[in-house]
Each structure stands twice: as structure tokens, then as C-alpha cells.
Write a structure and sequence with these properties.
By secondary structure, the chain is α+β, with helices and mostly antiparallel strands. The protein has a single domain, classed as Roll (ph1033 like fold), CATH 3.10.590. The chain is 21% helix and 31% strand. The protein is built from 4 helices and 6 strands, in the order E-H-E-H-E-E-E-H-E-H. A hairpin with a 6-residue loop joins strand 3 and strand 4. The radius of gyration is 15 Å and the shape is globular. The mean pLDDT is 92. It binds a DNA duplex through loops.
DNA sequence: GCCAACGTTGGC
DNA sequence: GCCAACGTTGGC
């Protein structure tokens, strides 16, 4: 099966592409997703080798900041089991977890990040969830063309 | 099962 | 900091 392409959002104040680059093995578990649609993508469709745009939300400006890739497929999000954790969810049981996460590894940081205004201005990127009205999905699929276009824009 | 109230997201 | 859009909750 060919690799797929994704975009994931993170608030850089919480966890940025630089944090990923500095992490042990440049790898982290992508925890804290608490939305069913996003969960389904993570659990069912993220495969090893898939390429992922790392997007900085709630930053000034919001940007596509770099690339990472999937290095471990879905397993239970243990932060949901921990009452001390911000993402604790008492409804998620160890025997039957509600929430899942994957591991991602740093690939590159864009020398020129692609801002949301540039993405919105690009006719080829009008269909991605990110620029559609009211979208709040934190994990979304991209086509290969959309992924390649964002990478191309980062290179200009 | 409806839907109002509420909490969160995230661009601006 | 504002607030529109959205998902979730809970009373009925």
C-alpha cells in the first residue's frame, strides 16, 4: 500500500517542530487527540512511513512548519488513563481504550514555513480541511498533490 | 431522540 | 482577548 499524507496541528507553545527535533530519537508519541474523527484517522489509517505536515496552530502566524513521518502505528493513548494528565478521560478503559496515538519522527523543518494565508491563497489547496470554514479537526488527510504543493511552497 | 447550554478550538 | 463554529453533555 502506498504511503498516505496527513496534516497534524499542534500549538507550538505546547509542542513545536523544534521540540520534536530535540526529542529523544527525534520521535514522540502523538497523544491527546480527543476527537472521534481524528481518532479514527489515527487508529485506522496512519501507517508506518506515512508523511505528515506538522502545523503550528495558535501561533503568529499559523504555519505549516515542517515534516514528520509515522514510525509506530496506533496503540492506546495512555494519557487517557492518568487522572493527573490534562487529557485524562475516565470513560476510556484499559481493556477497551477509547483513544489512540501513533509515534511520529522528525524529518525536516521548513527553512521557509508556509503560512495559512499562503495556503488559503493557493488554488490547489482549497480542498484541505484546514482552510475550510469552521474547521477544527486536528488530524486531517492530504492528497499527495496537496502535500507536495506545501513542500514546494516551503522551498521558494 | 431532541436541542439548549456549555466548553473548546483557533484564526483574527 | 474576542467570538464564530463546532462537538459534547444532559434534561426532558
Amino acid at each position: 500500500m502506498a504511503n498516505k499524507y496527513w496534516l497534524i496541528k499542534s500549538e507550538p507553545e505546547v509542542f513545536s517542530i523544534d521540540d520534536l527535533a530535540k526529542a529523544k530519537n527525534q520521535t514522540t508519541h502523538w497523544d491527546g487527540v480527543r476527537n472521534y474523527q481524528a481518532r479514527n484517522f489515527l487508529r485506522d489509517d496512519f501507517k508506518i512511513g506515512d508523511k505528515v505536515i506538522f502545523y503550528h496552530s495558535n501561533s503568529e502566524p499559523p504555519v505549516a512548519a515542517g515534516i514528520c513521518e509515522v514510525v509506530k502505528e496506533a496503540y492506546p493513548d495512555f494519557t487517557a488513563f492518568d487522572p493527573e494528565n490534562d487529557h485524562y478521560d475516565p470513560k476510556s478503559k484499559k481493556e477497551l481504550p477509547t483513544w489512540f496515538m501513533v509515534d511520529i519522527k522528525f524529518v525536516k523543518k521548513f527553512s521557509k514555513p508556509v503560512s495559512i494565508s499562503e495556503i488559503k491563497a493557493n488554488r490547489k489547496l482549497q480542498k484541505i480541511h484546514l482552510v475550510q470554514r469552521g474547521n477544527r479537526l486536528s488530524v486531517m488527510p492530504l492528497t499527495k498533490d496537496e502535500f507536495d504543493e506545501i513542500v514546494r511552497m516551503s522551498d521558494k
